Amino acid sequence: MKLSVLALGLAAGLALAAPAGAQVAATRDPAQIQAGTYVVDPGHTQAVFTVNHFGFSPYSGIFSDVSGTLELQPAKPAESRLKVSVPVKSLYAPSQHLVDSLKSDKWLDAAQFPEMTFTSTKVTPEGKDKAKVTGDLTLHGVTKPVTLEVTLVGAGANPMNKKLTVGFEAKGTIKRSDFGVKTFVPAISDEVQLTLHGAFERKD
């Protein structure tokens, strides 16, 4: 009896702690996603980069404060368009010394090139919830075409603010030397793996 009462109390406490509507699962069905203009949710969007550090280990850092828009057409994904901007000064890594170095003119030169941008030029559907998104990446003052492998994570009403939200994960690889960032190549890998976690909220 005591165990049953305890279990009921715990269940009630969890129900009170959970936000209203939190039990509603996001959908991965494009047919249930509303078309329209979506804007980046900067609090839940990250741009992660990973390099090989002297052959010893992968090393990652994160950019935040992303802004931008997504013109989403779930029924005709090839007509969707994406444009995002990432401030270089938002860079975070475990070592502050390394962060300061990466922002300096020896690496990304945040003072002269304060933003990175990506503007899509082509969206190629790859099944129900995947696509290849090709676009122009501008980094360190250089613009080059880059193709990202994009996967739909989910869409639905955010239980906290009720806004229609859609989320994606995108992955790709670039050579930093192509963008004029050549410090310590090849000791620190020229190839940079990119992983983008993007959340977008629909404009009313």
Task: Give a description of the structure.
This protein is mainly beta. Helix content is about 10%, strand content about 45%. The protein has one domain (about 25-200): Lipocalin (Beta Barrel), CATH 2.40.128.110. It has an eight-stranded antiparallel beta barrel with strand order 1-4-5-6-7-8-9-10. Residues about 1-25 have low confidence and may be disordered.
Quick recap:
With 204 residues, this protein is mainly beta. It has helices at 2-17, 96-103; strands at 36-40, 46-53, 57-63, 67-72, 81-87, 115-125, 130-139, 142-157, 164-175, 191-202.
Number of helices: 2
Please write the string of helix (H) and strand (E) elements. HEEEEEHEEEEE
Which CATH-level-2 architecture?
Beta Barrel
What overall form do the CA principal axes indicate?
A: elongated
Protein name: Protein YceI
Organism: Methylobacterium frigidaeris
InterPro entries: Lipid/polyisoprenoid-bd_YceI, TTHA0802/YceI-like_sf
Keywords: Signal
